Structure formats: C-alpha cells, structure tokens
Amino acid sequence: MMGRRKSEVIKTFTLTLAAILVMFVILFPVYYIFTVSISPQGSIATTQLNLIPKNVTLEPYREVLFGLAGERISENFTGTLEGNAVLENGRLYVKDGTLSGKVKYGPFTGIEFSVPVKDIQFTVPANQKTSGQLTAKVHGLFILTRIGKKNTIGFGIIRDVSMTSGKIDGTPVSGPMVKYVVIMNKGKVTLTTIGKFVNSVFFGYLKNSIILATLTVILSLIFVIPAAYAFSRMKFFGREHVLYFYLMFTQVAGGLGIAGLIALYGMLVKLGLYNKLPVLSFIYAAGSVPFNTWLLKGYVDSISPDFDEAALVDGAGYLQIIRYVLLPMALPGIATVAIFAFIGGWTEFILASLLLTQSNQPLSVWIYTLMGGIGRGIQWNYFGAAALLFALPVFVIFMLAQNYIRSGLTIGGLKE
Amino acid sequence: MQPNELQVFQSIAEEYMAECPNVNIVFEQKPNLEDALKAAIPSGQGPDLFIWAHDWIGKFAEAGLLEPIDNYVTADIKNKFAPMAQEAMQYKGHYYAMPFAAETVAIIYNKKMIQNPPKTFAEMKAIMEKYNDPNNKKYGIAYPINSYFISAWAQAFGGYYFDDKTEQPGLDNPATIEGFEFFFKNIWPYMAPTADYNTQQSIFLEGKAPMMVNGPWSIASVKNANISFGVVPLPPITKDGKTYWPRPYGGVKLFYFAKGIKNKDAAWKFVKWFTTNPQVIKQLALQLGYIPVLPEVLNDPDVQKDPVIYGFGQAVQHAYLMPKSPKMGPVWGDVDGAINEILQNPSNADIPAILKKYQDKAIKDIQGG
Amino acid sequence: MIALLLILPGMAAFLFFNLWPIIYSIYLAFTNAQLGNFPIYNAAQSTVSPMHFVGLDNFKWILGDDKFRSAFMWTWLFVFTSVTLKVLVGTALSLLYNSKYVKGKMIYRSLLVIPWALPLLFSVTVWKFMFDPVFGPINIILKSIGVSNLPNWTNNAFWGFIALNIIEVWLAYPFMMTVITSALQSVPDTLVEAAIIDGANYWQRIRHVVLPVVGKPIAFATILTSAASFQYFMVPYIYNAPLFEDKFLLLYGFRKAFGASPHYGRAAAVMVIATLVLAVYMYVNVKISKLQEGAKG
Fold this sequence. Notes:
A: 16 helices; 8 strands; B: alpha+beta; D-Maltodextrin-Binding Protein, domain 2; 13 strands; about 15% strand
C-alpha cells in the first residue's frame, strides 16, 4: 500500500516537472517577447542574451494601455480664465493669464488642464474702456494630440472659446474669443482614471474586439450545432454531397485573394453593409461554417446514439433530444467550436481592416497597423507589450472554457 | 506610420483645422494600405488623399487609381521643391502627388567610438578594420543586407538595378557587377555574417560596432539607446584617380491624390499648405527627422544644426530616385534572389555569373515570364 | 426536411457571404485581369486590353512552368514532414497535459495556447531572430553545449527547411492540442476503468479505448493541418523569401503572377489549382478514414 502511494507521488512529481520544463522550452519565444516588452530599449534583437533582463520597466505597458498613441482628444471643456487685461473698443485684450479647464464625461471629471496664455482677444459688446484683473468663466473645445514629459501639454489647441461671465475691474464682459490658442510644450494636463480609460486607444479597440468575437461565437454556435447534429445523426438526401462541398471550403480565407476581397467589398457596399461590426461577425461565423460543422460532427459522432434512442423512447422530440441529451455530452466539442470561433473573431484582421473604419476596428487591426514599420522603425518594447496584452484575453477565455470541457459529462472524461 | 509620426501629422492638421474651421481632416490607418486602396477606390469608398513613398506612383497611375492635379501644379509651385522631389511627384507627364520628405540611407556613427567620421572610403575601411573582432563579437560595421540597402554600392560605379527610362534591368552591367563585388570584398568581411535587419541594428545599438548603415527611421531607436551619434553620407571611393560616390536608392514621401476624390479643392488647399509651408516642414524635420525637400528649410540654420537632418540631407544629394515604373516590382525580388545566392558562399561566390542569371530572370519576369 | 431546416441557417449564411467572392475569384482565373484593367480599366494610360475571357491561358501558363512543378513536389515534402511532426507533437503534448499526474494542467494548457493568439508576422519575425546564425539564441545555446559547426538557419536551404518545420509545429500545436484534448475529455471514464480492471497497461488502454473515440477528431485535424502546410506562403515569405521561392507552391505561384505588373488572373489560377489539388487530397483522406459517416451505435 505504501509502495503504491510512493510510486504515485514520484510519478506525479516527475511528470509535473516534465510538463513545466516542456512548457518553458516551447514558450521560450513568448518569454523572450515578454523580456523585450519590459525593457527600456525598443529593439527586438540583441547581441547578449540575458535570460533575466537587467533593466526592467513597465512603461511600455502603461503606454499601450493608457497612451494617446497618435489619436487625438477633442472634447468640450468648461473653465476659467484669469489674468491682466485691457478693455477698449469692443475688444478685450488679455495680455497674459492662465486658462484652466475641465472636461467631464457624464458626472465625472476626465481631464484637467491649465495653460499660460498671452495676447488673446475677445469680442465683447461693451463700450467701456478699462484695464485690470480679469476673472471669467469660459467654455470651448479642447484638443490634445500629445502629452509631453511630466504632464505638460506636448501639443494642443484650444478653440471655439466663449467667455460667459467675466468681470474686469467690476465691469461684466462676455463674448467669443478671436482665433484660437496653440499650446506647445507648455502648461499642464492630467487625465483622471476615467479620462484615461475613456480616451485610451487600447480600451476603445478592446471593446470592439470583445463585441466582434463574442458575436462571432454566438452566431457560430447557432449555425453549427443544429447542422452538426443533422449530419451526424440523420440520413437525408444530399447529406454526403453537402458534406463534401463543405470540406472543400473549410479553408475559405485561403481562397479569398485580392480578387475575392474586392468582390466582397463591392458587394457589401452595394448592400449598405459597409462599416458595421455585426456584419463582420456574420461573415466570420458564416465563413467558418464548413470547418466548424465538420469539427463538431466529429465530436457528436463519438456520442453513442443509444442515448438518443433512449430519449426517443421516452417521447422526446428532436430539439429536446438536442437540448437535454446531446448538448451536455457534446459540451467539450461545443466548447472547442466556441474557442475556434472566438480565436477566429479575435485575430482576424484582413477583412476587419477593409470593411471597417478606424473607430470601429478591433485590436487585431491596430496591432497589424503597428507592424507596418517592420524592417524600418518599430518600438519593439511597446509592440511586444501590445501583442501580449492582445493575447491575454484569449488565455482568459481558454481558462474559462476548460471548465466546460471538463465538467460537462455525466460519465466524466479522463478526469482533469 | 508609427504612432509618434502620426501624432505630429495630427497636430499639424489640428492647427490647419483651427485656422480653417469648416475643414475637417481625419487620418485613418490601414495595415495593408495597398489592398485597402485597391478595394475601396473602385467602390467609391476611397480616401481623398493617401501618404506613401513615391515608388507606387507608376503602378497606381497605370491602375487608374490616382487623380491628376495638373491644373493645380503651376510652374512656381513645382519649382519650390528640390529637383529629386519634382521628379518624384509626376509620372508619364502628369502630376498626381505633392512631396514632403525624402529619405535614404547613410552612415550613423557612434561618437564615443569614432571622433572623426570617415570622409573617404579608405578612412571608412580603416575604421572597420580597427574595430572588427569577431571572436569578441565586435564588428567593423552593422549593415542590414537586402536589395535596398546594398543599392548604394551596386550603383556606385555607374551600375544600376533598373533604368526607369528604358525600363530594363541592369544587373549584368559590368559597373553593377563591379559594385556588387566591391561590397562583398570590402564591406562584408567586416560585418557579422547575417543579413537580418533587426540583428544588425542591435549590434550597433549595443555598442558592438562603431557604424551602422540605416535610414532616418532608425534614429528614434538610436536615441533611445542613449548613443551619442552623428550622420554622414556613405563616403566616396577613390579608384584610379577618379572619385565614385555610392548612390543609394532614395525615396520621396508623397501626398497622393486618389481617384474618386470627393473634396478636391479643399484637399488641394491643405496639401499645398502642408508641403510648401516652411514652418510645417521644419516641424517634420526637427521632430521626426524627415529630410525636407524644400530647399529653404534645408538651409534653415536650426535645421542645419541638427546632425540627423544635416547628415541625411547630404546623403540625399547622392541618392538615386527609386524607379517609378511598375516593372521594377519583380526586379527587387530578383536582386534579393541574387544576394541570397551570393550569401550561400560570400567569399567565393561567382558574382558575375549569379548576376547574369538573375538579369535573365528579371527580363523574363518583367515580360510576365 | 427537419434535417434541411437544421442545416439551413449555416448553409445560407455561408453561401450569402462567400458564394459571390468565390465565384468571382474563379471567374478571374479565366480572364486576363491585371494591373491596368482591374479593378478599373484605365483606358487613358493602360497598355493592356480591357479585361476579357482568355480561357485556359492562365492555367497553361503556370502549369507549363517546370519550376512550378518542382515547387509542387517540394511542398508535398514539407507537408509530409511537418504534418508528421505536428501530429506526433500535438498528440504527445495532449497526453502529457491530460495526465492525472500533472498538477496545474489547466494553467499550463492555457499558457500554451498563447502562440495561437499572437500575430503571425510577429511570431515569425521573433523566430527569425531565434534562428539568427550569429546572435540567435538557438545557435548560442548550441555553441555553449559544444557544437562546433553552427548551422546557418537563415541562409541555408537545408537548415532553413528544418527551421520552417520547427516554426510550423510551434504555430500549429495549439490547434492540435485543443482538438485532441477535447477529444480526450470525451473518453468515458467507465471504459478506462474497465480496461484497467482487465489488466491493460497505459499503452494498451491508449490503443483500444482512447484511440477509437479520439480517432475521428484527430484524423480531421490532421487533414486540415496538412491543408495548412500545403498552402504555406506567409511564413516562408517573411522568413526568407528568396531562399524558399521555388520550394513552396503558393509562394512561387504568387511571386510569378505578381511579377511584372500584378496579374490577378494568373494569381487566381494558381489559387484554383491549389484548391483543386487540396480538394482531391481531402476527399481521398476523408473517404479513407470514413469521416463522412455519422454516429454508430
């Protein structure tokens, strides 16, 4: 008895160790990408291989998750203007002062900024002549394209500003600002967590990816589950013909060269289906029907029809058989199809880049755009971080799906 | 375009939009721009403008995907640009684009290792010899190898990959052969025996070589690696009393006008402002290292002070404009094939024979073989 | 009739989005579509005639090229080597990470899926560096264990071929593992236990209990993955296009077609040929493994 236990423990230990070692060998390139993504340098090759990197920084991840990355922020703000001003001839000349403002998203403040300004003018319907200290409430459009070091505004424009209630030396003034203010490497801007989140390039695309992939999974299951049952269990005219037809097209994407792309593009534009995210999910789910049907059929085949017959005897209809008998036992297969559908929807970028405008595009397209600089100048640490973050949700989904693969069987699998 | 480049373009566009409030400019990035344009333009969903190097102008014009702007480009607008750029923005007698930057490769050297940059090839060779120490993983120069990067030497003695006027490849031209042989005899022995761009770049970035041959796009990585650097053009070769300048291929970045453009006037106004406004071009130069094609910006003291722009600006003077003809397409691949074959045995390869073989192949490929 | 209803949603969706593009691509293969008359006919400047039907010209053109034929053979060689490796490695990994003696399986399996989600271009670039003859980790490790003649992975056809096989296994194993693992999970415990009671050892259990259940999905995955190997194009192109140009069918075909001015008709012809060959291959294999049959009682 003890001997048995001991050999079990040794087997567990050695096999677990072997599993971990094999995993490290296989995943070495991924580990390498990880070390690149946390290094301060931006290069992917190195003359010295350091298994444990010396200089480590999380800056690339922060940049990916919260950086502006070439996008721009253009939001309405409300704020205040204070400074020295002169009022004459219907014009308010602000010699120098500070313009501060807040951008709100709903009830939350997202962005706060403050900028020194010089020589700006307002057109005011006031004929007095006076000078002195100005305090005013203003609102307008705040545009930001770059954040400099230490939260300075790298480049920004404040325009379409209106002064709503100002007082200079006791005299009330209000009116629109003449021209606009350009800010270069001046002033300060801070984004609150909400602000960062709303404006993050990454989270915007992430949302699109999640919608796209989830819809793809749902549609795929709807298309495939009934069909797989039919092909597996039923005999009907044309069954084999359709199966072989599907077989030829399990690799549809390979068959879509530039010609197919142009045809599909033209067709969608004519139907008015251009630039709609759900349409893309339909395309993915539809394109993978042959492959997924075959795959699921293979799994359903291995479930003995005796169960079907037992249920039939008990008086169940087809749909009920599918729902209560087959679905639970086919769960590993269904989970597998779901995984394939998810990965397909998550990583596809060719059709996504053609059929969507930039605001609708998923993460996969963004990653491929970044890779446009290959062989020239790519910031590899930034890109490595982006790629790993891109792969992360797949890892999470896979972990979740494994529960279904494991637990769906009344008879149980090979246990764990 | 990398995010840092796009940011600068976006900022410039914002200023323009603030100045002209009824104009709205939207930038869209596409991973595979060529296919996206080929699908979108015929369906009427194409952009008004797109940005790329000039080497597409031939094939896109012939495909009917470009909108001519002949009426807008008057003589005095055209003459604002450097001759190389003037050549780049037209194809077969029509104008389709406006230029805003040039690029080519040059020598980027590490100031800590070299105080006096090489002015002649003999000096360059001496530096390479001094530093080359493969056993200690140190090399004389970091040089990515492909048809583009080697073009400088292949074309130094009068050789050429492709003649735009006759539309014929020149791989077995004796001068081209001489150029290839020169490279493999005089530079290859001093570099790490790998063609890979990333590996070669890292050799320089990690201080294992005093010089690297690369273009302005790599400067960001060089700065990131905290290397104090300078830029000089590839130095001339003196042979039999004559001076031969290496002639690398150079590209000119253009704003192309797409067929089916919906707002031609507004787009023209913007592009004209962008490409002829010295302030804008100066910003591109100082922030992104783009080499100006407006001579007045090149001569601006601020710009001249910048080692990157000055060095590459000099290098561009000797560059060969990349051919515009669509027939050049297969030639790049064939040159890469020849290089690949030479690399099977670099020290003993029969370069003339290999080049002849690929010249025949190129001719065949151009005819649709 | 009920069966038709069950199949209909999937079939309709597939046909709606894919029928027209596929038909159009096939149609193109019989035309002289190229730069200058496709997608727009540029009458003003084009040197080619408008797009018209040319019958089998494109097919004759590519099939008559003997480099194309040798690429065909080389591609099959690659299919043979890579698929064997993929199936062996995939099965071995699935068995290992399904064994009841390995703790923490779920995490390992999920981590091992990551290569599947990385962009292809990126993975191949990283692998290209791994195989770099001077500074790549693989040669560095080989050197440190004393190998004197380091293989030139990136420029030598033989070693490059091996490198491509390794890369393909790395790219494809998550797919194989997912399919096989799910299949392994469907093996009924009772049967396994019965076999143990009957005195069967591990390998006998695999052969008689596991394999019959798991056979079909594995066979299917094998057929599909050989199709992927057959259509190998992006990876050799990124890795070292000139080196492999005439060793891979699609790579060669497309390079020739897009040679001078992009000839879309010829490219479409290449694709049609490849698809037909694959279709025959898959048909034969499915018939052999009886995959088209339904469930058996």
